[in-house]
C-alpha cells in the first residue's frame, strides 16, 4: 500500500519539530526516513496500543527522585496518545490511570501483577491489526548509565520498528552507543503478544540528570513526539 502523503508529511513534521528542539533539524527536514515495512496489505488501518508499564499495585522502579516508574510511564504514554490522536491514529491504552481495578480473587501483589499482565496480553491480542508500544524506564545499580533503548519482540516487524525508534531517540538523548535489542524472555507481555511490539526504555531513573528530565513535561513530549513520529513514518 502506498503511504498517504498527508501522513508522511505529518510524520516528517512531528520528527522535524522534535529534532528542531534538539538542534538536529537537518536530519529530518524534508527527508523523512525510509519507511519500515509494517504496512498492512489488507489496507486495514493499524491500531497503536500504548502500554504504560506497571501501575496499580506495581509501581515499577523507583527513581532517584522518589517517583515511581509507573507514573512517568503513564505521563509519556498519555502524551503519545494525544499526539497520535492529533494525527488520526487509532489508539488503545492498556491503562489510563495509576489505579487499577483488580478482581477479588487477586488478593496478593503477585496475583494482582499476574492478573494485570494477562489482561494486557488479552487486550493486545484482541485488538485487530495492533502495534504495541510499551513505555518503561530503566534502572541500574550505578548512576552513570543513561539514554533510551528500544527492545523488540520476536514478532514480525518488531525489530525494524525498534531500530527506527532507537535511531531517532538517540538524537534526543545524545546517547548513540545503545542499539535496539531483542527483549528478554522474562518479560511476559512482550513474549505473549502476536503483533509487532516494541518496549521503549525511555531513560534511566538511576541517573540523576536524566531522572529529573524524565519528569519534565517538555522532555516527555519530546520523547512522545519521537516515538509517535517514528510510528507514523513506519506503519501508515
Ligand atoms: Zn518497567
Structure description:
This protein has 236 residues and is α/β, with parallel strands linked by helices. It has one domain: Zn-dependent exopeptidases (Aminopeptidase, 3-Layer(aba) Sandwich). It is built from seven helices and six strands, in the order αβαβαββαβαβαα. It has a six-stranded mixed beta sheet, sandwiched between helices. The protein is globular. 45% of the residues are buried. Mean pLDDT is 88; it is low at 23-34. The chain binds zinc ion. Zinc ion (ZN) binds at residues 53-54, 60-61, 69, 136.
According to CATH, the fold-level topology is: Aminopeptidase
Helix-strand makeup class:
alpha/beta
The overall strand count is: 6
CATH top level is Alpha Beta
Percent helix, as a range, is: 40-55%
Ligands: zinc ion
Largest sheet: 6 strands, mixed
- Counting H and I runs of at least 4 residues, what is the number of helices? 7
| CATH architecture group name | 3-Layer(aba) Sandwich
Query: What fraction of residues sit in β-strands?
Result: 5-15%
Shape: globular
- Structural domain tally: 1
Low-confidence stretches: 23-34
Q: What string gives the helices and strands in order?
A: HEHEHEEHEHEHH
Distance between the termini: 9 Å
Q: How is the largest sheet built, in terms of strand order?
A: 2-1-3-6-4-5
Helices, strands, pairings?
Elements: H1 5-21, E1 47-52, H2 69-86, E2 90-93, H3 109-126, E3 130-138, E4 149-152, H4 158-173, E5 181-182, H5 188-192, E6 197-204, H6 208-214, H7 217-235
Helix pairs in contact: 1-7, 2-7, 4-7
Bound molecules: zinc ion.
Zinc ion (ZN) binds next to loops.
